Amino acid sequence: MTFSELVLPVWLLIACGALALAVVGVGLTQLPWRALSGDRALQHRWLAASLAVVLLWQLRAQSVDWLSLHLMLTPLLTLIFKAPMALVTNLLANLSLVLLGKVGWPLLGVNVLITGVIPVVITVSIWRIVDRLMPDNLMLFLFVCGFFGAALATLGTGLAGLGMIMLASGDPEAVYLAREYALFLPLLMPSEAFLTGMLLGILMVYHPHWVATFDSHRYIDTK
């Protein structure tokens, strides 16, 4: 979900923009520049994935003027390319909405925060738990990181966005609609979870080396 109109106070937009800028800036410093410059196949995969996300983000459901619902794909990108590259792709997708006139510039920071930073943090946290604390089981990795992780990241994004409206917006109608949308969050989670889990499973079977968070030797070769 992304905000399409200014329903949040200016101070919150500035705070979210500063936080998003700081996190994305740290992500840029952590990008594997050497690996990217020396691996043309990785460049092509990342650019193709980024283009696909930008195009898919144009397919949005918008029943109210200030809120758009769409697939994020941020959890999937985080598992395939890791957090820094996923954040850059998310920034490009949000910039595309701004450049096409679908979202105003002041909303860029808050949208990057709720559709990029929050789902990346949730996805990475779940992956760390699986990687360090759970048995080396391929299906466990797929279901916990892919399906459950994507669903939880979607829930976190929705709660963050709607929570901002309910806590900080001065528009009573927007607050009312946010409360109504909160009831539908469980219906938004399965689509993101299914797409993430399905594509992650396909890549883990046919191209496991494409998934940066997946150790094929640990989960497949040693079994």
Please explain how this structure is put together.
This protein has 223 residues and is mostly helical. It has a single domain (2-221), classed as Arp2/3 complex 21 kDa subunit ARPC3. Helix content is 74%, strand content 4%. The protein has helices at 10-29, 33-38, 40-56, 74-81, 83-99, 108-133, 138-168, 172-182, 185-206, 216-221; strands spanning 2-3, 61-64, 67-69. Strands 1-3-2 form a three-stranded antiparallel β-sheet. Helix 1 crosses helix 5, helix 4 (74-81) packs across helix 6 and helix 6 (108-133) runs antiparallel to helix 7 (138-168). The longest helix has 31 residues, at 138-168. It is globular and about 60 Å long.
Unreliable spans are none
**Helix content bin:** over 70%
Give me the count of strands: 3
Number of spatially distinct domains: 1
List the helices and strands and how they pair.
Blueprint: E1 2-3, H1 10-29, H2 33-38, H3 40-56, E2 61-64, E3 67-69, H4 74-81, H5 83-99, H6 108-133, H7 138-168, H8 172-182, H9 185-206, H10 216-221
Antiparallel strand pairs: 1-3, 2-3
